[in-house]
Amino acid sequence: MALLNPLRGEIVARLMEPASAAEVARQLGEQPQRVNYHLKALEKAGLVERVGSRQVRNLVELLYRSIAKSFVLAESLSMKPETMQKLKDQSALAHLIDTSERIKRDALLLMEQSDENETIPSAALQLRVQLSDQEERNAFVEEYVALVQQLVDRYHGKKDCSVDYNVLLAVYPKPAQGGNADE
User: Fold this and answer.
1) Cα-based angle 39, 106, 93 (whole degrees, multiple of 5)
2) Mean of per-residue pLDDT scores for the chain
């Protein structure tokens, strides 16, 4: 249950290598106090462990590490079906946030690693589609995944390839602007 909070899942994911609450907070753009609170709950649940400490100026920072490289959550957590669906929906949004952060992090690294006048080959595409109901949304996502997979398969695995490219795509409802869904 402790991992059901999306922030806690992110914290655990950042602790594959030992880190302090302050380091994890910087990586996630969170307040150290908030991360520390969640670290205590994760430690109490046995999902992270203290692995040391270090002196930083006048403070002693505790170092934590995840107890496993991955976790599998059982779908039978004695929750109502509505709660499970909401959890799935929210974890999808949490994954969307994580994906956008990954893109931002990778783009910054590429900029830092490139020469001054070097152009890094990349592409971004933003489109809008209107889907009327759940059935149409499901059909769109299935076709979307199949077409992208077909395209990736066509170009993946060429013998003379020397550069790997990440392909990250997302489909999500357009958020309402200013609280009005019609804007």
Assistant:
1) 55
2) 81
